[in-house]
């Protein structure tokens, strides 16, 4: 399977710039996800690769085949690119059987009837629906329709598979099942795949690598573990999973450990970091809710121990979710320990927090709890 190379991809709609000179490479056989909120440019990026949008600048190539080179005035039409695409709406023809839906792209490519029959059966077997080829789309469940759309994209052996939020129309339970099945299928086929989603859990579960986007920029490209455990900037930490952000003033840095005073409570905390900061600098300390431990007041623990009070507590099956008042700030924590109320201690190790060398406020919504 081929490698996809995108260089300085730039796109404007009128006076609005929606893609900002992005450069990235999708490796041979990789499941690569474009993740971000609505309007961040992820679908535009996918459409530029597909040929459904013409970029304002930059190049796109699959191995040695150049799809787009604005400087050289090269632009291959979608049908010339041999890419498979699945849309959010599936785009199945309702008046055609499943077999006829899969036959259409083969007819366009002038594949013989006998060869087409074999390719259709093979594609439907891959998605486990060969026994339903005589049915119509309305006779299938949403999950089955999604598989048909995927089979239609695979039937002509595309070089790259493009998926634009294909699971978003499924309910939560079916979506979980579908993404597990999709990951197995992609791994079995070894096909280079570009996937668009705004669902963080989906991106983390499916991807070999993720590109987190906002405002037309790619903020970070990395493995799911890298994106979640070591987000490059606070915006990535805020978008992928939940995160608490605490503004602090640096007191001192000794080696890779920083001592800083929290603005919200005056507590002195220690954080391990490779960032270089100076005494007096304002920084952002980020810590995931699951990295925080809630214990009864007066409990001693290694690392940082902060006096807090419980605002709300919710049982969510495998754990408890707490909203805690830390000075004039609200902190969210996940814990297996339930039944805590009133004054409690919040603890975390220096290695369990991240430090960013600028003061960034990204969780203002949580402060509304203090005024309720």
How would you concisely characterize the structure shown here?
The protein is of the alpha+beta class and 372 residues long. It has helices spanning 42-50, 98-108, 113-126, 142-154, 172-189, 200-206, 224-229, 234-239, and strands spanning 4-13, 16-26, 31-35, 57-62, 65-69, 74-75, 83-86, 160-164, 192-197, 209-214, 217-222, 244-254, 257-262, 268-272, 282-287, 293-296, 304-315, 320-326, 329-335, 343-348, 354-356.
What can you tell me about this protein's structure?
By secondary structure, the chain is of the alpha+beta class. The protein contains eight helices and 21 strands. The strands form four sheets. It has a six-stranded mixed β-sheet with strand order 7-8-9-3-10-11, with helices on both faces. The chain is elongated, with a radius of gyration of 25 Å. Mean pLDDT is 92; it is low at 365-372.
């Amino acid at each position: 399977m081929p490698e996809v190379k995108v260089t300085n991809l730039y796109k404007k709609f009128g006076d609005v710039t929606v893609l900002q000179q992005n450069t990235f490479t999708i490796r041979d056989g990789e499941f690569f996800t474009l993740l971000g909120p609505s309007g961040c440019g992820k679908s535009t990026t996918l459409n530029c690769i597909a040929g459904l949008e013409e970029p304002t600048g930059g190049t796109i190539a699959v191995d040695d085949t150049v799809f787009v080179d604005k400087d050289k005035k090269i632009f291959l039409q979608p049908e010339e690119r041999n890419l498979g695409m699945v849309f959010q709406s599936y785009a199945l023809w309702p008046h055609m059987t499943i077999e006829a839906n899969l036959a259409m792209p083969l007819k366009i490519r002038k594949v013989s009837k006998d060869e087409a029959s074999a390719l259709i059966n093979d594609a439907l077997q891959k998605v486990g629906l060969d026994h339903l080829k005589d049915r119509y789309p309305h006779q299938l469940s949403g999950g089955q329709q999604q598989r048909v759309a995927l089979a239609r994209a695979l039937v002509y052996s595309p070089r790259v598979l493009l998926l634009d939020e294909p699971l978003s129309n499924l309910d939560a339970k079916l979506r979980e099942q579908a993404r597990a099945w999709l990951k197995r299928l992609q791994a079995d086929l070894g096909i280079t795949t570009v996937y668009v989603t705004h669902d963080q859990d989906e991106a983390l579960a499916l991807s070999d690598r993720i590109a987190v986007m906002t405002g037309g920029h790619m903020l970070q490209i990395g493995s799911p573990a890298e994106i979640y455990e070591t987000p490059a900037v606070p915006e990535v930490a805020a978008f992928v999973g939940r995160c608490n952000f605490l503004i602090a003033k640096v007191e001192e840095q000794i080696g890779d450990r920083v001592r800083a005073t929290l603005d919200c409570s005056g507590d002195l905390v220690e954080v391990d970091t490779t960032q270089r900061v100076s005494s007096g600098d304002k920084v952002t300390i980020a810590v995931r809710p699951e990295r925080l431990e809630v214990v009864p007041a007066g409990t001693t623990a290694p690392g940082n121990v902060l006096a807090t009070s419980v605002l709300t507590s919710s049982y969510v099956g495998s754990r408890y979710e707490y909203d805690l008042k830390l000075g004039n700030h609200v902190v969210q924590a996940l814990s297996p320990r339930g039944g805590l109320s009133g004054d409690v201690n919040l603890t975390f190790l220096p290695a369990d927090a991240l430090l960013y060398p600028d003061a960034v406020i990204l969780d203002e919504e949580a402060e509304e709890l203090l005024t309720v």
